[in-house]
Specification:
Structural class: alpha+beta
Helix content: 25-40%
Number of strands: 5
Number of helices: 2
Distance between the termini: 115 Å
Largest sheet: 5 strands, antiparallel
Radius of gyration: 31 Å
Length: about 160
C-alpha cells in the first residue's frame, strides 16, 4: 500500500495573501497621509491669502481716508486698480480696486442741515500667482485665491482730514 503524502505549500500561499493585504493597507495609509498633508498645507495657504486680502482692503481704506492717500478723491478712486506685491512677506500678490458712489443725502447734521455722504467699495483679491486673479492657474492644486470686499461711508465736510 502506498502512503499518502501530506500536502505542502498552504503556508506559503497564506503568507503571500497576508503580505498582499498588508501592502494594500500600507499603501492606503500613505495615500491618506499625503492627502492630509496636502489639505493642511492648503489650509495654511488659505489663511495667508485671507490675511493678504485683508491687508489689501486696509491699504485701500487708508488711501481713501488719509489726506495724502492716492484715492482721496472720487475721481482717483473710481476704476482705480493697484497691485500690492507681498511675495517677500508671504508669497502673495494682491489686486486692490476702488469704486466710489455719488454723493447722497443721509440724515442731518447737528445744525439740522442735510448730511452729504459718499460710499466707497474696496475689493482686494489675493493669490499666489504673478497675476491676480489667475484663471489659468486656478485649476492647479497649488493655486490659492481669496477675495475680500469692504464698503465704507464717510460724511463730507469742510475740515481738513474730512472725507473727500
Amino acid at each position: 500500500m502506498r502512503r499518502q503524502q501530506a500536502q505542502k505549500g498552504f503556508g506559503a500561499i497564506a503568507a503571500i495573501v497576508v503580505l498582499v493585504i498588508l501592502a494594500a493597507l500600507a499603501g492606503a495609509i500613505v495615500k491618506f497621509g499625503t492627502a492630509q498633508q496636502l489639505g493642511s498645507a492648503q489650509d495654511i495657504e488659505s489663511a495667508r491669502a485671507w490675511q493678504a486680502a485683508k491687508a489689501g482692503t486696509d491699504w485701500g481704506l487708508f488711501q481713501i481716508f488719509q489726506p495724502a492717500g492716492i484715492w482721496r478723491t472720487a475721481g482717483n478712486c473710481n476704476a482705480a486698480v493697484q497691485t500690492l506685491d507681498l511675495t517677500a512677506a508671504n508669497g502673495f500678490r494682491v489686486t486692490v480696486r476702488c469704486t466710489a458712489t455719488n454723493n447722497f443725502v443721509e440724515g442731518e447734521t447737528a445744525a439740522g442741515t442735510p448730511q452729504s455722504v459718499r460710499g466707497y467699495r474696496v475689493e482686494a483679491i489675493a493669490c499666489n500667482s504673478s497675476v491676480c486673479p489667475d484663471n489659468n492657474a486656478a485649476t492647479t492644486a497649488s493655486y490659492v485665491e481669496r477675495a475680500r470686499q469692504v464698503i465704507a461711508f464717510c460724511p463730507r465736510g469742510t475740515n481738513p482730514g474730512d472725507c473727500p
